[in-house]
Write a structure and sequence with these properties.
The complex is a heterodimer. Chain A is 39% helix and 20% strand. Chain A has 23 helices and 16 strands. In chain A, strands 6-11-12-16-15-14-13 form a 7-stranded mixed β-sheet, with helices on both faces. In chain A, a hairpin with a 4-residue loop joins strand 3 and strand 4. The radius of gyration of chain A is 45 Å and the shape is elongated. Chain B is elongated. Classes of the chains: A alpha+beta, B alpha+beta. At the A-B interface, helix 14, strand 6, strand 7, helix 16 and strand 8 of A face helix 2, helix 8, helix 10, helix 11 and strand 19 of B.
Chain lengths: 509, 567
């Protein structure tokens, strides 16, 4: 590599690498590099790893057995091996000593005494007299005056001298004196590039690491190279504040309707059955009303709300059709049933209330809402007790079924479903009534995502005062959002798992 | 607009495919069959080589039988269009209605002869009867039906109410006679439909001229007169209920089903105390319609002839501007109902999609704009937005927050729901903070800091409004990490007010709030309007939620704040 290439390489080195560079030597071990550079072991290890990534050196590592002092070994190094303390005691008494005397006064614990007797007898350093007292022998005296091989080995280990495992058989058998540890011994071998670099004098290259305000203010950066960073290196992840992913989706959906000139409706979540059901011409004995899946408010007894002044028009329509041209349900309409307060079962309740407030002069008019609705059922992977519905109404004397299809198709195209169809269905408040399906391009099948239709005159006339076509739809959202984020369990939508809130990708429609 | 498919009230009907195809008179490939069934107006569940499973909408009880469904389908695909005529012969036989059957005053009856029954037929007729009573009969409350082998009964028959203690009979499936008063305890149908007879002292019975009890309503036939078997060729049908029209439609559905099995219908004279009627009445009803109205709503320009052809595809007749509606249709209330059937016959798939160029001015709800702006400020401060349910377990917002629930005038006496499926959602939240603590509780294993916010609806009882429930919007913010403290949460509050140019008017007081550490809770007001509380959440609260990091929290009344803004 030419000079400028080497300089470029040097300028991309981390300070630790640069510090180590002058001390690199063929075959040097980590310990040697530490000693030579004055760096910490962990710093050297990091530096040689980075240098090896840059192909400046190679690291070979092998397992090496080495011997270290264990807890008793360390202690005995201070106060002497038990056998030495045993003999010292004997020597100090200057006469044979009974065993119990040793036990009481020699500051050795019973296991140590047992071990000492074994060792010292083997070395002929003591002998037992007929009266069971213990006497030190000549060999014992020699032992006391010289350093034993065991003591020398312990000292050598302590001083870091290399001691072969084969020398230590005896000590290894004794309790917690020494242990054999397997250590990784790393050595470096310089590559060709490394050898060239090692020859290079880099002391003159004064690279800038972190750019500091001082460097900028004092202009000391001029004429100096900046350290080159590895821009491809992985960095730790960060996350920040953000909207909930369901709200990102509902904002998008709202924007679709706003772009089409729709006005947003808002209203209560707690509603009387009157607005939620009766105003929508749901017969009071409709099976859906009797089902247990409506949340009625109350504690033991139901909460009853108030009816609007014009409720009699609705009553008449239910019972006989009134002025709508309908027969009505031909059944008595019960006021109390209509006064029960519930959590709205559909946001279509807002459409009914909007119609009631709308003036004939304001036609044509278009409204939408994206809101929560409630259903009293057990929470599981495909059922929620609270979920969203997208409602829309178009009140226009010239509106027709083709327009309904047009709005629905456009909406679903913007939601990522290229094809939508309607098929016949039944709702008490629309005629015609449609189920809305979208074509699932992956599963290759129609999936049902909502209901739609044109409000019946029995709904429109009492609320608005005239019989005008009102296109209406109520579409489900959770399934679309789950599909988008590839959830298989609807509960994930409102699980508020913070990791998911942080990491889930953006809603990108 | 609810999804019907999610609704549990839609009965699933199993049709025998070969029987169905024979009735239709044409075999369609499975794909085509599925597509046509869907486009006629049912939720198709599944089609196999031998069976068709469909969910029938409640407005078409006549589709609960193979015969009724096939009748419509044959017309829909153009095989046998038009109004199907049924001939009724007079039997001259009588059913006398006693004036004491006030609890279930109406009956309509018929005889059908020349039938052949086998296992399959018996299954079909049982299915129709049962599903019809569940849906059209509203679980037998509005109407219920019985079918009897004609040779087991003797005319004239009486429909009369009796004290069940005085009647002895052998209910279906029983081996001996029991007092009728024991049926509610002993018979499965007695237990199941007990609620229908709530408050009755007497029960309606059909009793034949030999004084044999034929059935006890609304529960069961008697075992000796009410069992169809393979030997049966002639049957007596009774429909009873609280609504004459409903009862008559049920009889029309049952008799036309049996007639489509090959039966011959005979009428019965029903002698009410004040008049005599003859049932069944299968004459179509007439409805005038305005083709211009229909064309306009559908965006079509159908001629009278085209309209009458389309009506024929839905089994209607047509006569000079009038549709002739089959007697088994109960759902035609208005000409829009004809309009829908014309649209179905035309094919929903054949309507083009038009996006009309109608200029209207869009407007996002102003409060929703405000909410979004608040959310943007908070996300800018690094807070994560969460989304909770409005329904939570009551004790999460009371006991766990150290707030007393007992006082009905207190601020935290939550609105409750009746009979929730799970106690985990038995009350509406009255404030937002418990929702956020609940989230912190479930994320204890996740990385800190956990700084969260959420805006949403909260609920309170009150006496004045239409729903006796006050709804307003709130914002809650929590900071949860090692050094979360009152300063950091107060900074958030001040920042929001500053961004709304309200800080000049901000007034702050110390407040005593059981969820916060004493001396570390503040209350914020603008002029006299209370707006917010914030502070360091009390460790006793944190312990209840199992949170072991400090939490500083803010609860802000967004509705009040919004009302203060100059707009």
């Amino acid at each position: 590599m030419n000079k400028s290439g080497l300089h470029l390489l040097v300028s991309s080195l981390h300070p630790l690498e640069r510090k180590l560079l002058p001390h690199l030597k063929q075959g040097a071990s980590v310990e040697e590099l530490c000693a030579a550079s004055g760096m910490q072991e962990v710093e050297v290890i990091r530096a040689i790893q980075w240098l090896s990534n840059k192909d400046i050196l190679q690291i070979t590592s092998k397992d090496v057995e080495s011997i270290e002092l264990d807890q008793n070994g360390k202690a005995y190094l201070q106060k002497g091996l038990p056998e030495r303390r045993f003999l010292t005691y004997l020597a100090r008494q200057k006469k044979p000593v009974p065993l119990h005397d040793l036990e009481q006064h020699a500051s050795l614990d019973p296991t140590e005494i047992q071990a000492c007797i074994g060792i010292l007898k083997r070395k002929n350093s003591i002998s037992f007299l007929p009266d069971k007292t213990i006497k030190m022998t000549k060999e014992g005296e020699t032992f006391l005056s010289t350093e034993s091989p065991e003591e020398r080995i312990l000292k050598d280990i302590h001083q870091g001298k290399a001691v072969a495992v084969s020398e230590c058989k005896g000590l290894l058998q004794r309790k917690n004196l020494i242990t054999v540890v397997i250590k990784k011994k790393r050595e470096i071998s310089l590559t060709k590039l490394g050898q060239e670099l090692a020859k290079e004098d880099i002391t003159g290259i004064n690279v800038i690491d972190r750019l500091t305000p001082t460097i900028i203010q004092e202009k000391t950066w001029e004429g100096r190279p900046f350290r080159r960073y590895d821009v491809k290196i992985n960095v730790p992840p960060i996350s920040g504040g953000r909207r909930h992913f369901v709200n990102q989706a509902t904002d998008y959906i709202k924007q679709i309707w706003l772009d089409l000139g729709f006005v947003e409706m808002t209203g209560n979540m707690a509603q009387t059955a009157f607005w939620d059901l009766d105003a929508l011409f749901v017969p009071q004995d409709h099976p859906a009303r009797a089902m247990q899946d409506t949340f009625y408010l109350g504690e033991k007894t139901p909460v009853y709300g108030d009816l609007p002044a014009a409720y009699r028009d609705i009553k008449t329509v239910h019972e006989s059709g009134g002025n709508t041209g309908s027969r009505g349900w031909q059944a008595p309409w019960n006021e109390e049933e209509a006064r029960r307060v519930l959590l709205r079962t559909h946001t279509t309740v807002l459409s009914a209330q909007t119609l009631a407030k709308l003036k004939k002069e304001d036609l044509p008019a278009k409204f939408f809402n994206v809101g929560r609705v409630f259903r009293n059922e057990a929470l599981d992977w495909k059922h929620l007790f609270e979920f969203h519905q997208v409602d829309g109404i178009v009140i226009d004397p010239d509106a027709n079924l083709k327009h309904l299809k047009g709005y629905l198709k456009l909406f679903f195209r913007k939601m990522g479903y290229p094809d939508a169809r309607i098929r016949p269905a039944h709702f008490p408040y629309t005629e015609p009534s449609c189920e809305v399906d979208v074509w699932h391009p992956v599963h290759k099948q129609w999936i049902e995502l909502g209901g739609a239709g044109i409000f019946r005159p029995e709904v429109v006339v009492p609320l608005l005062g005239i019989d005008v076509p009102v296109l209406a739809w109520g579409l489900g959202l959770e399934r679309i959002i789950s599909e988008y984020y590839q959830f298989t369990d609807l509960r994930e939508l409102y699980g508020n798992d913070i990791k998911k809130l942080r990491e889930i990708p953006l809603w990108m429609r | 607009m609810n999804y019907n498919a999610e609704m549990n009230y839609m009965p699933t009907v199993t049709l025998n495919r070969p029987v169905f195809e024979k009735l239709v008179g044409k075999k369609l490939p499975t794909d085509k069959l599925k597509e046509r069934i869907s486009m006629m107006g049912t939720d198709l569940e599944d089609v196999t080589d031998t069976e068709i499973h469909v969910e029938v909408f409640p407005n078409r009880p006549d589709w609960l039988s193979e015969q009724g469904f096939a009748r419509s389908f044959a017309a829909f695909i153009g095989e046998k269009p038009g109004l199907r005529e049924y001939y009724i012969k007079k039997s001259g036989l009588k059913v006398a209605v006693d004036k004491n059957v006030t609890m279930r005053p109406y009956t309509a009856c018929a005889i059908v002869k020349n039938l052949t029954f086998n296992d399959e037929r018996i299954r079909e007729i049982m299915q129709v009867q049962e599903k019809l009573a569940t849906t059209h009969g509203r679980n037998r409350k509005k109407s219920a039906y019985g079918i009897y082998p004609l040779n087991t009964i003797q005319f004239p028959i009486r429909y009369t109410a009796k004290d069940p203690k005085e009647v002895l009979f052998q209910p279906l499936g029983f081996s001996k006679k029991i007092p009728a008063s024991q049926v509610e305890e002993l018979h499965p149908k007695g237990k199941e439909y007990r609620h229908v007879a709530e408050g009755w002292k007497k029960y309606p019975f059909f009793i034949d001229s030999k004084n044999n009890v034929m059935c006890m309503l609304p529960y069961t036939n008697s075992d000796d007169t009410g069992k169809i078997d393979e030997e049966t060729t002639e049957v007596f049908i009774e429909c009873t209920g609280t609504d004459m029209a409903n009862v008559k439609v049920a009889l029309s559905i049952l008799t036309t089903t049996l007639a489509d099995m090959g039966g011959e219908i005979y009428s019965i004279d029903i002698e009410y105390p004040d008049r005599t009627i003859t049932t069944p009445d299968l004459a179509p009803t007439k409805m005038e319609f305005d083709l211009g109205y229909i064309n306009k709503r559908l965006g079509l320009s159908l001629s009278e002839k085209e309209a009458s052809t389309l009506l024929a595809r839905m089994n209607y007749g047509y006569e000079n501007g009038y549709a002739l509606i089959p007697a088994y249709r109960a759902d035609i209330l208005h000409q829009v109902d004809l309009l829908e059937d014309i649209a179905i016959a035309y094919g929903y798939e054949n309507f083009e999609e038009i996006l009309p160029k109608v200029a209207t001015i869009a407007m996002e709800a102003p409060f929703e704009v405000f909410r979004r702006k608040m959310a943007l400020l908070l996300t800018g401060l690094g807070f994560l937005e969460t989304a909770s349910y409005h329904l939570i377990e009551e004790e999460t917002q009371t006991r766990k927050m150290l707030v007393q629930a007992g006082d009905p005038t207190g601020p935290h006496h939550p609105v409750k729901v009746l009979d929730p499926v799970s106690l985990e959602y038995n009350s509406l939240r009255s404030w937002m903070l418990p929702c956020l603590l609940h989230i912190l509780q479930r994320n204890r294993h996740q990385e800190y800091p956990q700084n969260l916010f959420e805006t949403g609806r909260v609920f309170k009882k009150e006496a004045v409004s239409e729903t006796k429930t006050e709804e307003k919007e709130c914002l809650a913010v929590v900071l949860c990490h090692q050094t979360a403290d009152i300063t950091s949460v107060r900074q958030v509050y001040d920042y929001l007010l500053r961004m709304l140019k309200l800080q000049e008017k901000s007034m702050i007081e110390e407040t005593a709030h059981p969820s916060f550490i004493p001396g570390r809770a503040g209350k914020g007001m603008i002029s006299a309007t209370p707006l917010a509380v914030w502070g360091e959440v009390h460790p006793a609260v944190l312990e209840k939620f199992g949170i072991s990091q400090p939490v500083a929290a803010l609860e802000l009344d967004l509705t009040a704040l919004w009302n203060l803004l100059e707009k």
